[in-house]
């Protein structure tokens, strides 16, 4: 929580704050009025254009719900495939063998440095050229492939950070009872790191859900965003209404996931049984960036890869 | 081997990407700082607005925002941001969308930087009678900025990659050119390699350089 940068307001400060509140309120009101006027002028506020979403169940069953289903399908497929791949890459990056570490590092740094959209475009073209996947399902394949390539490399960093965040004593204890390296990783470190990185995983899911919209805009994947065009065509050019509904759905899903991630993080940090190792939801942003990382991630001294 | 590049303005496309990044980078730094100041300000209404803005904008896909600037703002409401031809309009709309989206992340990064400033300093500056604005401007923000070079670099790199989304509203940047070239040429692997290399050249050095800068300037505590 941010420490307050101001004192408890006295009479003068109270008056000043009230003045600022008033000025800000007026500014917001002017903005709202401008938005209202422009919407009114273009007839975007007519009840006819908003009604389908409230009274017509077909608007949901034909456009929104199928789109939502495809968004969820692509996101969950991408997460399920990317997670083991990411775990493999992340563990390889911690390997004692230089070439295993180097290869995994290069792969991770490379795919983190490239926009997801570029990966999706490539996957789409590659599927149409080298495979005979039908054009109907190709967008789904392309979207999932692009998401997997990118997110596996991000999740690799999450896994690596999760393993490195565990207290040293875990490895020492495993060594002391005579476990080999592989056994230590498989039976001691990995299971605990899964708990530690749960918040980061949940918040990466938000990134994945948001990125599925790329497929709708550029690859013809019929996910939630893609349902805006047919909806506004069918319900009398209600572009604004359709966008609002779609945006609200995205915000609700992702806000729920974000809140869940931070609740989980707080719970893990407070938990008495845990080792105290947590990869927070905030860390995801940093781990998604190519280049070296500062902080506990470097404790193992394993920053290999593309330079 | 690379003769398929002829007839395409590869450098031009990447230049558009760089320009998109720079304009929206500066824009979101300014707007993000304002938002962060709002979120720690003594005025409850401003705090509420800042919190609501960040939570809503962060959770909407950038693609939705960018397409909304084109379909909603321009085509429905006629907002053209003072430009007359389509290239300029789409470019400005893309900058607007990218700025609106990225500033939420700048705000969050800055707020975490503000949290790193020791409470004692804030108490001291209040004790010598500095107002909220003075505390923020003279004591807190200078230190906060130095400690968030790293996170801001991450935001900048994410922004560089996000500029590709503006291909969705027809801005002629790298991803749009890649799409066009894939359609016209039969050199999928090479074309993709060229564009991948372009983005690696843009993002990886930025990450390494700003990571080095952030180690240099961060306040040791």
Characterise this structure.
The complex is a heterodimer of chains A (307) and B (221). Chain A has 307 residues and is mainly α. Chain A has a domain at 57-270: MetI-like (MetI-like fold), CATH 1.10.3720. Chain A contains 11 helices and no strands. Chain A has helices at 11-41, 47-55, 57-92, 98-113, 116-130, 138-164, 168-176, 181-218, 228-234, 239-270, 283-287. Chain A is flat and about 75 Å long. Chain A starts with 10 loop residues before the first helix and ends in a 20-residue tail after the last helix. Chain B has a single domain, classed as MetI-like fold, CATH 1.10.3720.10. Chain B has helices at 10-39, 44-59, 62-76, 86-116, 119-127, 132-147, 149-162, 174-184, 188-217. The longest helix of chain B has 31 residues, at 86-116. Chain B starts with 9 loop residues before the first helix and ends with a helix. Helices cover 78% and strands 0% of the residues of chain B. In chain B, helix 8 runs antiparallel to helix 9. Chain B is mainly alpha-helical and 221 residues long. Chain A: InterPro entries: AA_ABC_transptr_permease_3TM, ArtM/GltK/GlnP/TcyL/YhdX-like, MetI-like, MetI-like_sf. Chain A: It comes from Streptomyces finlayi. Chain A: It is a multi-pass membrane protein.
């Amino acid at each position: 929580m941010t420490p307050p940068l101001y004192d408890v307001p006295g009479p003068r400060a109270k008056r000043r704050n009230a003045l600022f509140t008033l000025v800000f309120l007026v500014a917001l009101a002017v903005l709202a009025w401008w938005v209202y006027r422009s919407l009114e002028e273009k007839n975007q506020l007519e009840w006819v254009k908003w009604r389908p979403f409230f009274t017509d169940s077909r608007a949901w069953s034909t456009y929104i719900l199928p789109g939502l289903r495809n968004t969820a399908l692509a996101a969950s497929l991408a997460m399920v495939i990317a997670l083991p791949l990411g775990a493999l890459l992340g563990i390889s990056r911690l390997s004692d063998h230089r070439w295993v570490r180097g290869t995994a590092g290069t792969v991770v740094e490379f795919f983190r440095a490239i926009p997801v959209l570029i990966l999706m475009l490539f996957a789409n073209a590659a599927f149409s050229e080298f495979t005979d996947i039908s054009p109907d399902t190709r967008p789904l394949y392309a979207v999932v492939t692009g998401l997997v390539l990118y997110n596996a490399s991000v999740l690799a960093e999450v896994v690596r950070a999760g393993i490195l965040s565990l207290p040293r004593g875990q490895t020492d204890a495993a060594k002391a009872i005579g476990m080999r390296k592989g056994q230590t990783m498989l039976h001691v470190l990995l299971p605990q790191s899964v708990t530690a990185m749960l918040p980061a995983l949940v918040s990466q899911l938000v990134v994945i859900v948001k990125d599925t919209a790329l497929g709708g805009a550029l690859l013809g994947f019929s996910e939630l965003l893609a349902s805006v065009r047919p909806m506004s065509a069918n319900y009398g050019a209600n572009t604004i209404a359709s966008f609002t509904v779609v945006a609200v759905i995205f915000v609700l899903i992702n806000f729920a996931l974000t809140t869940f991630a931070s609740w989980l993080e707080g719970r893990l940090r407070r938990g008495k049984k845990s080792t105290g190792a947590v990869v927070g939801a905030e860390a995801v942003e940093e781990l998604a960036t190519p280049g070296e990382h500062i902080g506990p991630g470097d404790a193992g001294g394993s920053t290999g890869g593309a330079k | 081997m690379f003769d398929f590049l002829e007839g395409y303005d590869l450098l031009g496309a990447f230049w558009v990407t760089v320009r998109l990044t720079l304009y929206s980078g500066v824009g979101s730094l300014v707007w993000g700082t304002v938002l962060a100041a709002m979120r720690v300000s003594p005025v409850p209404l401003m705090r509420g607005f800042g919190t609501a803005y960040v939570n809503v904008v962060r959770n909407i896909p950038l693609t939705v925002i960018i397409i909304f600037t084109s379909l909603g703002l321009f085509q429905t409401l006629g907002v053209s941001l003072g430009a007359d031809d389509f290239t300029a309009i789409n470019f400005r709309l893309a900058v607007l969308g990218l700025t609106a989206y990225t500033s939420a992340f700048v705000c969050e990064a800055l707020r975490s930087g503000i949290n790193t400033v020791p409470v004692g300093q804030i108490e001291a500056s209040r004790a010598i009678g500095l107002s909220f604005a003075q505390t923020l401007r003279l004591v807190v923000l200078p230190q906060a900025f130095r400690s968030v070079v790293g996170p801001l670099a991450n935001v900048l790199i994410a922004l560089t990659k996000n500029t590709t989304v503006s291909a969705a509203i027809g801005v002629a940047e790298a991803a749009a050119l890649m799409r066009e070239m894939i359609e016209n040429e039969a050199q999928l692997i090479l074309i993709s390699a060229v564009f991948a290399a372009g983005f690696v050249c843009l993002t990886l050095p930025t990450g390494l350089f700003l990571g080095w800068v952030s180690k240099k300037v961060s306040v040791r505590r």
